Amino acid sequence: MSIKVVLTEDEIPRQWYNLAADLPSPMQPPLGPDGNPVSPDMLAPVFPMNLIEQEVSQERWIDIPEEVLELLYRWRPSPLHRAYALEKALGTPAKIYYKNESVSPAGSHKPNTAIPQAWYNKEFGIERLTTETGAGQWGSALAFAGALVGLEVKVYMVRISFDQKPFRKVMMETWGGKCVPSPSNETQAGRDILAKMPDTPGSLGIAISEAVEAAVTDPTGKTRYALGSVLNHVMLHQTIIGLETKKQLEKIGEKKVDTVIACAGGGSNFAGLAFPFVHDKINGAQIDIIPVEPSSCPTMTRAPFVYDFGDTAQMTPLLPMYSLGHNFIPPPIHAGGLRYHGMAPLVSAAIRENLITPRAIHQLECYQAAILFARTEGIIVAPETSHAVAGAIQEAKKAKEEGKEKVIVFGLSGHGLMDLLGYEKYFAGELHDYALPEEELKKSLDDSLQGLPKPAGV
Ligand SMILES: Cc1ncc(COP(=O)(O)O)c(C=O)c1O
Fold it and tell me: Which atom of ligand 1 is found nearest the CA of 101?
């Protein structure tokens, strides 16, 4: 009986998979403020050119540099587990597997892209990175990567998470990074928001504005910005998750996967696990591929496909994506990393092509699922990850009703040991479900999208 399937270092995939090469219709380009497509040169103040090349690449397979692999070996390949105990508790005939990204030093999948992003920046001669973080997972991951590669890292952390999770800051500092609450007084974007809303809990959109501004206004020209999700090159780096998973399933003779599930905030851990399976689906495989989001921040299930900014201060290009509107201030649910207004253009494109089927689940069902998971499999998952667990449990129950021995694979994107406040509130009965009222959604869209161009075909 294999409970864990492990790969050795020399079995690690040596190339990333780029879904952009295989989409049935090409992606629509990001647009600049004038409504024209953004050229790679226009992104140069924000990102190093080697990552911009990956961002716009149409190559299906992209080599992972040997030095990046050597850094990833600190915890990769990550284990694939069979959730026998959960299956037994559910009495399901389904086989449930989970890919465990919580084993990274920062506790989530985020270092899979933090390491290559830091490495490519260093190669390009950059000395300092700025970024935002919601729940703190991405900021920690980039601080960790900065320590390994030798870059300074400055993190703008969404205020509500900064207050709720003081130990994330300590983690970032331990790896040599600096972390301030956002909105801050250090940037024009932060000062403007604070003048209007001094008590704002902050949002990822605001923190992104601050981090981008800090990078592009650095007079030395040696600072760039790093984004932990949403962009094509981030999805690309994360595909190592799904590529390893496929090798692991092959290793134990599991030939057919029926269902792939992961939570989606900006889309990166979902894309990482799912895109190699989307590749199979494009080539004829029958697989249900399900990104799960919170019902309170229903980007994929209720928002329109539009051109929208990635941040509140409108500093990023316009991206073709599902979006609740860049002015959306999400309700303070405990899955901080799932409170983003947009969805990665690549994930959005896969939804438009009917390759994947999004689902929204309420917070309380997710906590119930996470607690059952902790009491069977043992791992206390991140509140974000609880959405994937809840999705997998829904599918396993369905398999039981249908009497089918389905193979379900889900992404365990991170552990929740730094997020216990959410669990505490759940046990105290202080958490509630929240469905975004239609009027609020409409207001955010009206406020955010007026005058912006529309994607073709919409
Ligand atoms: C553990 C964990 N899972 C999932 C997410 C959501 O991000 P993404 O959709 O980019 O994977 C986050 C973001 O902070 C996270 O920390």
Answer: 1
Q: Is 412 in the pocket of ligand 1 (CB under 6 A)?
A: no
Domain boundaries, the chain: 64-107+233-446, 111-227
Q: Which CATH number fits domain 111-227: 3.30.1490.10, 3.40.50.1100, 3.90.550.50, 3.40.1440.10?
A: 3.40.50.1100
Query: For domain 64-107+233-446, which architecture applies?
Result: 3-Layer(aba) Sandwich (3.40)
User: Measured between alpha carbons, how far is residue 313 from residues 5, 121, 433 in Å?
Assistant: 45, 25, 29
Position 61 scores a pLDDT of: 98
- Measured from the CA of 336, which atom of ligand 1 is nearest? 14
pLDDT at 315: 86
Q: Do domains 64-107+233-446 and 111-227 have the same CATH topology?
A: yes
Flag the least confident range among 173-187, 300-314, 332-346: 332-346
Omega before 77 within 30 of 0, i.e. cis: yes
Residue nearest to atom 15 of ligand 1 (CA): 337
CB 94 within 8 A of CB 401: no
* pLDDT for position 312: 84
pLDDT digits (tens, 9 = 90+) for 122-153: 999 999 999 999 889 999 999 999 999 999 99
> Ligand 1 pocket: which of 102, 110, 389 to mutate (most atoms <8 Å of CB)?
110
b/e per residue 354-379 (b: at least 16 CB within 10 A): ebbebbbbbbebbbbbbbbbbebbeb
Could you say which DSSP state residue 100 is in? E
Q: If DSSP codes are grouped into helix, strand and coil, which group holds residue 306?
A: strand
386 lines ligand 1 (CB under 6 A): no
pLDDT digits (tens, 9 = 90+) for 155-189: 999 998 899 888 999 999 999 999 999 999 999 99
Predicted local distance difference test score (pLDDT) of residue 196: 95
pLDDT given at position 337: 82
Question: How many angstroms does the Cα of residue 133 sit away from the middle of ligand 1?
Answer: 10
